[in-house]
Design goal:
Elements (H helix, E strand, L loop, with lengths): L1 H10 L1 H4 L5 H28 L5 E2 L4 E2 L1 H25 L7 H29 L4 H24 L4
Antiparallel strand pairs: 1-2
């Protein structure tokens, strides 16, 4: 399955070969897939699961855009780690457990950044929740690539 996915992905690499390294191309492609899945989960959760209502848990009440962010983040974490470990950063010599811990740390940092930016855009600037999430995602993607490449899955 892994080899099939890589061969399909790499089939399109010659188009981008002059401007991207293979690793950067794979990160962009896998990140694009993960972003689409994450935004889809966010949109579905916000529009259909939480339907603009507060999510009242025993320990905290979440606004619907934050609850949708949590659902999206859980799905994106799992898919993102699998894609980065097995497709993008295959040359990393770090043990899988170390990669997972580092990935979790960078993921939590990026999630916190996403949360702060989304809260600011939606609650203070009155942006549409999906547009706010789309905007914060673009910022977090850039930071995510650098943190994954040089920390979570570094080669040495």
């Amino acid at each position: 399955m892994k080899l099939l996915f890589i061969s399909i992905l790499d089939f399109f690499y010659p188009i981008f070969k002059k401007v991207l390294s293979l690793e950067t191309y794979r990160y962009a492609a896998c990140g694009g897939i993960n972003t689409i899945v994450g935004l889809g989960a966010y949109f579905f959760s916000y529009q259909f699961l939480f339907v603009g209502e507060l999510v009242d848990l025993p320990f905290y009440t979440f606004k619907p855009h934050v609850a949708a962010l949590i659902v999206s983040a859980l799905l994106s974490f799992c898919l993102g780690f699998i894609l980065n470990k097995f497709i993008v950063f295959t040359g990393s010599a770090l043990r899988g457990r170390i990669q997972l811990i580092r990935y979790l740390l960078t993921f939590l940092f990026n999630l916190f950044l996403n949360y702060i930016m989304l809260k600011w855009l939606v609650e203070y600037l009155q942006w549409d929740a999906f547009l706010g999430q789309l905007t914060t995602t673009s910022v977090v993607i850039c930071i995510g690539f650098l943190s994954q490449k040089y920390f979570s899955f570094r080669n040495s």
